Amino acid sequence: QLQLQESGPGLVKPSGTLSLTCTVSGGSISSSGSYWGWIRQPPGKGLEWIGSIYYNGNTYYNPSLKSRVTISVDTSKNQFSLKETSVTAADTAVYYCASGVIGSFDYWGQGTLVTVSS
Amino acid sequence: EIVMTQSPATLSVSPGERATLSCRASQSVGSNLAWYQQKPGQAPRLLFYGASIRATGIPARFSGSGSGTEFTLTISSLQSEDFAVYYCQQYNIWPPYTFGQGTKLEIK
Fold first, then answer.
1. A62/B95 CB distance under 8 A
2. Is the pLDDT of residue A101 over 90?
């Protein structure tokens, strides 16, 4: 059973950079056909896809965030990461890492709350 | 970007009754639609992909249907653990993957 776990600072200052890591266990991040993504949920609101990285290294981002977001993978650690620059209070959310094969997100981390505040 | 619209925003149903949730896409997504269930303080859980293919471990009282722009999630006999927020997500035309705004299923 695939398991994902987010980690990173829970508080980021405005204009700073949000950095999160997702550690994958129970499977390889390099598995053919797999993809790994980040999804966020502002308090009391719905889900927003941030971006995904595929097993072949290709990345895709939400156009609304593309200029500020980078997703990368570290196969040696079986981890993938999110960096989001120039954050504002609007970026305060629970951030989930998730994975899938065909477009849906089959496995999710428990989520981590990131608050943007001085 | 494909816009996903769910209705109603809130649905009040009594335990044991049937619940029907709707999801509409702004353009055809074929059968490339997923449904998720989210309980307070938890991550979403995949219920269906391919519009009607039940994910592992999902009870048979849940069913998904539809294609193109109109989709339905039906829960045939509501159990206490089914009261949650439900989201649809399209993965036909991306980026971006897009979610509906959610339907809150509450106890009547």
1. yes
2. no
